[in-house]
Design brief:
single chain, mainly alpha, three-stranded antiparallel β-sheet
Length: 411
């Protein structure tokens, strides 16, 4: 493989996908021109439900995506979309009485589920901090800092070191802390801790507070010491409060996403020893996903393994995370097998997941990619963050790889 030409091609194709398909879909077809924000639900075929409730995760991720797009690409249309998203998010999702982000509002912007899930607080911090980084909007920064302080005040468990999962509107811990019915009702999860790590990394870039840096380090160490299984080859989904594992399912998307976010977080702290540990952990995860989850016949990344059952469907978000994760692993290790995997997954995506007729990506397709499994184009979880971020990360990482004198460095 001619590495330089392959990298140029990957960058050009994913940049085109971002600016011609993903971002226009969310600026135009998904925009709620009547009520503001993003419409809460769009069917696979493009049918819009204007009455659907709107989720905090969806709206925070839209805000993050357009903020990051403006920050990295500089198009003023993305700045305008980011600013509109920030105004709507602050006006309707932020609790003016007790602080933090509501879980769900109705189509007109009134709270219908006022829980304060820490996972949602993480995405609020992530999005608002990115908006400040892109635009220098002080209100977004102050909002991100305020939510960080609320999370630390209410969710951080200093005795057992970790974060609680979910609270009611006035920050009383709930009995049912699940994100959804498929989750286990356990007091610790990979999801919440991984996305707090991601959020704190971004906030630290614009507000290098000492307590924030300390908590970011704690999250990185928790990921390496507890969340990644002792074998080092996958992450564990759920735990008791004292970090006893409670689940055996392997989510390949979370494994590869953890690998690169872990290194990104450790890089932010400028600690060579911590970064070396994170890179070694990331390489073990990436090698395992490469060996076990990349489909050798059709391309793409399998969804998950539960016991002896391998779910071979291809969902949109693990594909996006795998492209980034394998490219990041290639940057660190110089192993072209990672680069070939990233490119092959992108080839599967462009053939089977990108919807050339109705825009955006299908949520889920069969192993071969020939059959869609149904699912929304826009919904509480279906958003532009995974695929939009993948495109932005590929642009930045390829630029770094192709810079004069740059070479992937083995760890």
């Amino acid at each position: 493989m001619r590495v330089e030409s392959a990298l140029h091609e990957l960058r050009a194709e994913m940049r085109a996908e971002l600016i011609r398909d993903i971002l226009p879909f969310w600026m135009e077809r998904a925009s709620d021109r009547r009520n503001g924000g993003t419409v809460g639900f769009i069917e696979e075929d493009g049918t819009v439900d204007p009455t659907s409730p709107k989720g905090a995760i969806l709206h925070a991720r839209v805000l993050w995506t357009f903020s990051a797009a403006y920050h990295r690409l500089g198009d003023d249309a993305y700045r305008q979309a980011a600013d509109r998203a920030a105004v709507h998010f602050s006006a309707h999702f932020i609790d003016p009485t007790f602080g933090g982000a509501f879980w769900m509002i109705d189509a007109q912007g009134r709270p219908v589920d006022d829980r304060k899930h820490v996972y949602a607080q993480a995405f609020a911090i992530y999005a608002l901090a990115e908006h400040y980084r892109a635009t220098s909007d002080e209100h977004s920064l102050s909002s991100a800092i305020a939510i960080f302080r609320l999370v630390e005040a209410h969710a951080y468990d200093a005795d057992r070191v970790g974060y609680e999962e979910c609270f009611n509107h006035d920050w009383r811990l709930l009995d049912d802390v699940r994100l959804g019915p498929e989750d286990l009702n356990e007091p610790r999860s990979v999801n919440t801790h991984l996305h707090l790590l991601e959020a704190y990394t971004t906030l630290h870039a614009v507000w290098p507070d000492a307590r924030l840096a300390a908590r970011l380090r704690t999250l990185i160490e928790l990921m390496m010491d507890h969340v990644i299984a002792p074998s080092g080859d996958h992450v564990i989904g759920f735990f008791t409060a004292d970090w006893q594992p409670r689940s055996a399912k392997v989510s390949f998307g979370h494994d590869i996403e953890t690998s690169w976010l872990l290194v990104q977080g450790a890089t932010a702290l400028n600690d060579p020893e911590l970064l070396e540990r994170a890179r070694e952990a990331a390489q073990r995860l990436a090698r395992a996903v490469l060996a076990r989850a990349v489909d050798p016949e059709h391309g793409g990344l399998f969804y998950e393994r539960s016991g002896d059952h391998l779910d071979t469907d291809k969902e949109w978000w693990p594909q996006a995370e795998a492209i980034v994760g394998f490219l990041a692993a290639y940057q660190d290790a110089g192993d072209e097998a990672y680069l070939r995997a990233a490119i092959s997954i992108w080839r599967f995506v462009e053939r089977h997941l990108v919807d050339r007729r109705n825009g955006e990506w299908y949520r889920r397709v069969s192993r071969s990619g020939e059959e869609t499994r149904g699912g929304e184009k826009v919904g509480p979880w279906k958003c532009p963050y995974h695929n939009g971020r993948a495109c932005l990360e590929v642009i930045a990482r390829v630029d770094a790889l192709l810079a004069p004198g740059a070479r992937p460095v083995a760890v």
